[in-house]
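INFO  loader      accepted 1 record
INFO  loader      residues=460
INFO  predictor   begin
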Amino acid sequence: MRHAILILTLLAAGCSQAPTPGASSSESPSALKVVTEEVRKESFASQILLSGQVQPTEEKAVVLTAPLDGVAVKPLVKVGSLVVRDQPLVEMNSVYGMTSLQILEKLESEQDQVVEARAKLSAALTNQTEAQKALGQAHSQVSALTSDLRQAEADLNFAETDLKRKTELLDAGISSRAEVEESRTRYEKAKALNEAARQELQIARRQIPLFEKNIDQYQQAVELAMQAVKVTDSNFERNKAVYSQAALVGTEIPAELTSLALNTRHAQSSAAQASGFYVRAPITGVVTKLNVTSGQRVPSGAELGQVVELSQVYVDANAFEGDVARLREGDRIEVTSTSVPGQKFSGRIRYIGQQVSPSTRTIQVRSLIDNPKGYLRPDTFVDVSVQLPARADTVVISDKALLTLGNDEFVMVEDGKDNYRKQMVVVGAKSKDKVEILKGLRPGQRVVTEGNLLLESRER
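INFO  predictor   done
INFO  writer      dumping tokens
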């Protein structure tokens, strides 16, 4: 197709296009206008264009779950809704999803959780107290060892002075050698005791940061245990009220009871009022899933939907093996989407996969994209442009000079006036109007940029 278009253009326009800077034109014997251009080395920056799809990040996606067995009265939002933290998303009722016996069993289980949480808090407080006591003892030991070291240093100074004095008396013939040796023994002993006291003090001082770290860890354990006690106490007290009211009902939800019936037939029921609650948004974001309908019975822990915070998103693109070789983690990319015209989103490559898809022969490239206003939504298709660093001294030619036939790529090289030959080349990266040549050409040669297709056809 490319060859046909070039032929029609050349024939229709009479090859009247003006030559590019650095190009020259000549007439062949057949009056064919040929334009050539010099092969050069220059700084060359390229880009790789990929297609991708937006995905939420793992740490910014929160699954909604049912805290109790119950019935969904009605969902209060739709997929795609923007929600804020603590906004009610699904209205639930626990009485009509459980019998009194089931609630009683759950209540007994939660009472055990309260006891266990309080036991863990007590153990954490005990550990914290013991750690504080150990730190106090360590400080006392350091103080005592410091005093011992000072005494050992004083004894060493005294023994050293005594040894020096008796050595001088021996030299003067006043003291005996036995007295000098006795003094030397006391000095060596004092020296050893001083060194031992110094090392013991150093060991004791190194233990203090360890005790302080233990106290910090136990303090964190105490805070977590207090939060657990608060949560279990709250659940237990709430469900005690639910059970006392549900005992008035004592049966599961009738098969014919619809969400409308929940709002009308039992509107004045104290049991229904006591057991009504909302599943709320855990974060500010977008509702990307909602798996519940009005009147649906929902077991405790069931997934109801998902809320995603979209200030940052992943873009998963599929790159061919030849392109992957030129990509690096950390490369800057730009993303555009037809759903957000005129907007560009920037980010960097975070991960390049290792597995080649057997069906598409592509490799996944995942990038982290800044999306401060949440315009890019999950599952949106986008265009990805990877900006590759410029490389100096790259052999480049105009893309007009490059011809393709099957799997072969070649150019027409000028060897002299009206003398042209076909030259096979190995192509690297491409930009808007330039092509990198890895093999087959050298700087200073001239290649045909206009009339090359007709020259090539005359050689066949």
